Amino acid sequence: GNRPLFYYFAAEEAVPHFGSKEKARDAVDRLRNASRESGTGDPYIVALCFWPDKGAQALREVGFDAIGAYCNPPGVEGRELAYSELTGLNRWFWNACKETGVPVVPPVNAGWDPRPRRALAHVNVKGNWCPNVAPDELATHLAGALRWVEQSPETCEARTLLIYAWNEFDEGGWLCPTLAEGTARLDAIANVLRPAVAPEGQPEVPRR
Question: What CA–CA distance (Å, rounded) separates 17 from 20?
Fold first, then answer.
């Protein structure tokens, strides 16, 4: 419906942050009203969380429109993971969110490697990491996520997803061009998103 898309990070902390469910809901209502009054429209607010059940609880308590995640950090065992393990975690999260019965905007991890942050004395970063994601692996995962959205119209009412991330270089998730890769990641996902050439008079359809 051409509504502005708004992501609320760490939504499970909304109630503690504002002090009560009532105050948190009032804050979200004031945001909606300000957006409407400005002529922008009623924002579609996605509650970004790390656990589906907590996200669904926040949605019901505060009045968000959908749940999702900024990213899915892959555990704390302290080992290197293959990208297939990270994408498996994404798929688990999508389905676990779907089982809560609330609308979902699924996340797609372009990687995860927070080890550079360990060089900072004030940052205590532990956990697993997934380095060196190949552009074609990312494209394949994105195509699978798009299929999941298409196959879940009631769950994915906004028909969108969130890719982590544009430039989280010190956390290992990025799409931004780099000296090492150039535009390889953007080129790979463009091949997934670019419409195929349709016969004359036919609407263009996304290529998968």
Answer: 8
What is the secondary structure of 33-52 as a DSSP string? HHHHHTTS---EEEEE-SSH
Task: Calculate mean pLDDT across residues 43-72.
Answer: 98
Going by their DSSP bridges, the two strands 173-174 and 167-168 should be labelled as: antiparallel
Structure token digits, residue 77: 């065992």
Distance CA 25, CA 28 (A): 5
Distance between CA 24 and CA 148 in Å, rounded? Answer: 31
Helix (H, G, I), strand (E, B) or coil at 21: helix
In 3D space, the residue among 164, 137, 62, 145 whose CA is nearest the CA of residue 104 turns out to be 145
Look up residue 42 and give its two tokens.
């009623």
Q: Indicate the pTM of the whole model.
A: 0.90
Pure H helices in the chain: 14-18, 21-37, 52-58, 83-99, 135-150, 184-193
Query: Could you tell me which residues come within 8 angstroms of residue 92 by beta carbon, excluding any fewer than 6 positions away?
Result: none
* Identity at 18, one-letter amino acid code: F
What is the distance in angstroms between the CA of the first residue and the CA of the last residue of the chain? 24
Query: What whole-number distance in Å separates Cα of residue 53 and Cα of residue 75?
Result: 18
Look-up of token digits 């429109």: 65
Give backbone dihedrals phi and psi of 130, rounded to 5 degrees, phi first: -135, 90
Write out pLDDT tens, residues 97-133: 999 999 999 999 999 998 888 777 666 667 899 988 9
Between vectors from CA 45 to CA 22 and to CA 193, what angle results, nearest 5°? 165
Q: Are 100 and 53 in contact, with CB atoms under 8 Å apart? A: yes
